[in-house]
UniProtKB/TrEMBL annotation, chains A, B:
Domain FAD-binding PCMH-type: 92-275
Protein name: FAD-binding oxidoreductase
Site label Important for enzyme activity, positions: R310
Protein family membership: Belongs to the FAD-binding oxidoreductase/transferase type 4 family.
InterPro entries: Alkyl-DHAP_Synthase (IPR025650), FAD-bd_oxidored_4_C (IPR004113), FAD-bd_PCMH (IPR016166), FAD-bd_PCMH-like_sf (IPR036318), FAD-bd_PCMH_sub2 (IPR016169), FAD-linked_Oxase-like_C (IPR016164), Oxid_FAD_bind_N (IPR006094)
Domain of life of the organism encoding this protein: Bacteria
Cofactor(s), names only, from the UniProt record: FAD
Start and end residues of each stretch annotated as Disordered: 525-545
Keywords: FAD, Flavoprotein
Listed GO biological process terms: lipid biosynthetic process
UniProt key word Amino-acid biosynthesis: no
Amino acid sequence: MPPRRMKFWGWGFEGEGATPEERTAVHKTAATKFGATTFDDTPPRAEDYTLRAPRVAVPQALAGFCSSERLDRLVHAYGKSFIDSVRIFERRVPNPPDVVAYPGGEQDVVDLLDWAASNDVAVIPFGGGSSVVGGVEPVVGDAFKGVVSVNLQRLDKVLEVDKASRAARIQAGVLGPQLEAQLRPHGVTLRHFPQSFEYSTLGGWIATRSGGHFATLYTHIDDFVEQVRMVTPRGVWESFRLPGSGAGPSPDRLAIGSEGALGVITEAWMRLQDRPRFRAGTSVGFRTFEDAWGAVRAISQAGLYPANVRLLDRVEAHTTGAGDGTADVMVLAFESADHDVGPWMARALECVRDHGGTPDMDQLEATGGHREGASGAWRNAFIRMPFFREILTPLGVLFDTFETAITWDRFGDFHANVMAALHDVMRRECGPGAIASCRFTHVYPDGPAPYFSFYGKGRPGGMVDQWQAIKHACSDVLNRLGGTITHHHAVGRDHMPWYEKQRPDLFAAALQGAKDAIDPSGVMNPGVLLPPKRQTASGAATAVR
Amino acid sequence: MPPRRMKFWGWGFEGEGATPEERTAVHKTAATKFGATTFDDTPPRAEDYTLRAPRVAVPQALAGFCSSERLDRLVHAYGKSFIDSVRIFERRVPNPPDVVAYPGGEQDVVDLLDWAASNDVAVIPFGGGSSVVGGVEPVVGDAFKGVVSVNLQRLDKVLEVDKASRAARIQAGVLGPQLEAQLRPHGVTLRHFPQSFEYSTLGGWIATRSGGHFATLYTHIDDFVEQVRMVTPRGVWESFRLPGSGAGPSPDRLAIGSEGALGVITEAWMRLQDRPRFRAGTSVGFRTFEDAWGAVRAISQAGLYPANVRLLDRVEAHTTGAGDGTADVMVLAFESADHDVGPWMARALECVRDHGGTPDMDQLEATGGHREGASGAWRNAFIRMPFFREILTPLGVLFDTFETAITWDRFGDFHANVMAALHDVMRRECGPGAIASCRFTHVYPDGPAPYFSFYGKGRPGGMVDQWQAIKHACSDVLNRLGGTITHHHAVGRDHMPWYEKQRPDLFAAALQGAKDAIDPSGVMNPGVLLPPKRQTASGAATAVR
């Protein structure tokens, strides 16, 4: 077990968190906006929690890499969502895992799954634990004798680098910074930077179809996977390592997004890129939101493939310090390892001006511009945001986000309806003063991925109920209007009701059939993607179809 | 049934074929290279064939759109591969479908599948019938009472065009030219041009993971699919229409490449593009093959995304008239609907010169260059090639191709080994004078998709055996060295032995589980992707696992 220990009650490792300055600023905002005043500065301590006794114990052969220590169980009891934070601060942990396993290699995973599958013990693969959708929460129904969380952190090596193809074979438990540090000496990068980059793993990215920081083209983990190796209860699944293939439905695309419900991803060959050397970036102000997204659409359909073409509505721009609230802001950037991106930026700025946008030319002239001005402010807020949760929650500020994707033809009405529903439910649940905003995290030629953020005043002891009301109202609207229930945060347990409405029923049947074939006892992350098997009246466990 | 009738014994529609000039040229080459002299000019006639009587008849309710006429059964008895051609010319059609259905709408497909699934009748979805891998051949094992081929040609409409998102809802049976003709008035294009474009359908492209003509980026049908609608024996599967999603494994990616083994794709929302207005193209000569593929690799990794960066080795260049056989030739082109592609081409030409390439600057200066010089010669040969099969086969010339994909680090050895194996088996099977060549059809940052062509002297009555020996030898090498058994021609029945070695065993189990759930009687295209269910000693049909 490594020296750095994950915080069980907040973002990152022990000792990390908001700076004093950030803390003061967040306090001030919370007080101004929501009248929040009380704040207990003391971080939760492990001894604050009453945990039920472990219900299962691993056999001797597995004991060397398993733990039922209080702190291990606490760290693996929740992900990092808003309601995870609320429940941690409320000292409520009803479902800790019984065992936490830290396999040292693939054979440990094989042995663990053998034991779990033969003993009705549920298995929850755990990468960085940064799930915000209940993906790693040990709530698995009543058909299991216990739960083991499998933390892959010891599988943290880049095993091979192939410079000619720009690819590497990488263990699934590696965190973003560890991964990039191992690639840097070779002059290559995975260039996949989700917001959780520092605290999430390659395996987690693949299992959840992670979306990177970049707005267009090569940013989704899906497109970087060249080969997957996954341990299932029936053995190891390994695809050929290929740049492209048309041999039947892609095996990798079934593993990608499987969220631990089919197996534990242990390693993958990943496509890399040369480290960018050329950059151009700026931000652009727009008088209306319609103009702004019209410009985004034009750029997305022009075949320019900017690294960033992120739209912040004026509220989002204001709350993140990227604007004064009088204009919608586009963050625009190009990057290349190969060539000057001037012609690309020049054409994008034409699109921008065609739609009434005003680019910040000073910022563009600065060194690349991507960490300057409004873009830099937004980028900093984006990275620091998750640390603010542990300040906001005990202050009684309700804060969460959700994201979706929709085609351009439907976007205008869709956005209006979602914002209306969000404002409406926030007013009902949180009273006046609630804040809601929208940005685009990713943009496709056929539509954007809008991301909604909201803040409101929480009710003491009622924040989980408030959140549920908001989540249900907004998810219902997304689903009814044809948006996806999740664009890059995964399904987990939180999104299951809407995921079940969204996916084709026959795909659900097919996926259940696939799972039954490779996880016949149904122990892999039960309740995620498919309903958990249930205890019958006779005491036998059956799969729910 | 439309006025144009498909040729059952060759490429295209009745009345189409090689021109007299092409015919003369092919004859001359065949005589020079292989001493081929005999040639019976008479096309095969339907009455030349003895077909077994239909083993099943559809009920009255389906009869209105079904046929058991000789010509319908002949047209659907084979695809368009070399051995299909040989068997047709040998007047051998042992496995015609018993019935050919021409559904007029989705409900017809639903009704047909209901009947087939309840009556142990195998169902083979049939788009343009251009499969070169046995994908539509009614060889389904012994567990079925009969076979119905489902020709989707009446589902040939673009149903909706969404200009804002650049997408359209399109019926699956539409042929390439029909599709583009319906999109043209809207100023958009699917821009998916496989070699079979004129004689293949949207549904076929999706079912087989078709690769378009373009060499990089958006060319695979996989990336154009926004939503799929598929009729399965258990009902209709329809995904949400989304620009992007992270909600579990992609349902669309299970339908894409399903080759009719899960259901009949009836329509899809497809991503479109604006029609290109800016073009730059040329061809580049290289002194060595290593220099040439080094340049291709550099361009593919530069983030320039040319529409074409196709490498023809000197033999391929010579046989297609794109070169004199003294140089390997790169066909290089950029296209855009939005902007001048000069800066892109300029940078690509730098990469080319870095690797010792000599671009044809005259061709570049000509109108766009993509239909001029070596590029134009190659393009013409590419499109006309399939018509030559019906001349070459009766001349006793063995001619076929196979394609794969491999990462760059392995490509040099891989290419040498595959070419050696191909030359070796060609020498054994066809004697001296055999020709073998290689080109790249698609290029990825992590590797190329090499495509091998071969010609040799056939043995009268022995060409199927010769082909099988060559196919086995080459496929064994591809598989052993880690190349995919198919990059864009699909698995069909011909590639099953190597596909079964290539895919993870547990993926096979998962796919069988998925199929069992939505096609419980196993009637959908039996023997493709999964082994067909078999008749047991007791007479009951069981699935083979």
